[in-house]
Amino acid sequence: MRSKLVVGVTGASGSVYALAALRALRHADVEVHLVMSDQARRTVELETDATAVDLEALAHHVYRDDDLAAAISSGSFLHEGMLVIPCSIKSASAIAHSLNGNLLVRAADVTLKEKRRLVLVVRETPLHLGHLRTLTQLAEIGAVILPPIPGMYARPQSVEEIVAHTVGKALDQFGIANDLFKRWK
Description:
The protein is 40% helix and 17% strand. It has 7 helices and 6 strands; from the N terminus they run E-H-E-H-H-E-E-H-H-E-H-E-H.
């Protein structure tokens, strides 16, 4: 049976990470259930040559962020976990406090409640104490905080290689085989 992963895309800068992750998941033959915030739809077009429709085309199922009755809003929807890439501090804060005003946050909250893997590729810098406390709270309740920090040991030669490193590390969190980055030997 094919594995299922919920992917959330917020409006944080870093749409290239979402695009690369969706392409890698398609290549890995993972069933993707995608939810994008309204701001993510705008950000992807500001930062890349892609559109929200291009990202949606890489998913198997797409949900509107205002559809709180969607399958991924329920703990009875079985999946291996959820990847939020990129994850804004706004969304991270809402997840940390169970402020389920949209589907992306609700799906992440349900993922935690059901003890499934939640990986947040938090894209913000610098971080102030409030951000750090929010991230600490998320880690304490079971989320994996995976900021997009490249491993320079691989001597990346392009932005694509830097992005691939983060995406590969995120896929590793779900046990999804990949060769997106040079591993330390």
